[in-house]
Design a protein that fits this description.
Layout lengths: L9 E6 L3 E6 L8 E6 L3 E11 L2 E6 L3 H17 L19 E6 L4 E9 L3 E5 L9 E4 L2 E8 L3 E6 L13
Antiparallel strand pairs: 1-2, 2-5, 3-4, 4-5, 6-7, 6-9, 7-8, 8-11, 9-10, 10-11
């Protein structure tokens, strides 16, 4: 998605934790802010640093922690086929387009949060609070429980497997 909110289907030609080259019909201006949703990676943002014959190169804007996570994801993607590694998750991650949502605790307290990734069985959310592991929550219309804490937030496991249709408010 470009700064003017136009969206284009693109393909990643090559990628590192610092930049990504896209083959794309969209032609952002150098220095223009771009947001991309990449399969198996999720949402990244950055600025255009170069136009190419078939697309553009974007410098990724991210914290050191996000770059480390991105490097690990790229390494796993690059090596999983050569090494015969199985998928490390029960369900594929879906890329949420609507990332702003709200976590509701059983006692009714509400906290704004950002959806980082989503699958049929759970979600990772960026949130300032850390409810104890096992805490029952509601995320959108889905009930779940906190199963893990990490630097940016918490991982949620849904109480029941969600259908893709149930996740449409985020996709």
């Amino acid at each position: 998605m470009l700064a003017n909110y136009e969206e284009y289907v693109c393909s990643v030609v090559n990628m590192s934790p610092g930049d990504v080259r896209f083959a794309c019909d969209g032609r952002p201006k150098p220095g223009e802010r771009v947001i991309a949703y990449i399969d198996h990676i999720g949402r990244i943002e950055g600025t255009t640093i170069k136009l190419t014959d078939d697309g553009f190169v974007m410098s990724i804007v991210a914290t050191g922690r996000k770059r480390e996570k991105l490097a690990a994801q790229l390494t796993w993607i690059a090596n999983k086929h050569e090494l015969g590694l199985p998928e490390d998750r029960r369900h594929d991650r879906l890329t949420p387009r609507n990332t702003l949502t709200e976590l509701v605790l059983d006692d009714g307290r509400r906290y704004p949060c950002r959806l980082m990734d989503l699958s049929l069985s759970g979600a990772a959310i960026d949130i300032d609070i850390r409810p104890p592991i096992g805490t029952q929550i509601k995320l959108g219309n889905m009930r779940g429980r906190v199963v893990r804490h990490f630097l940016e937030g918490v991982a949620i496991e849904f109480l029941t497997l969600q259908s893709r249709e149930a996740l449409t408010e985020f996709l």
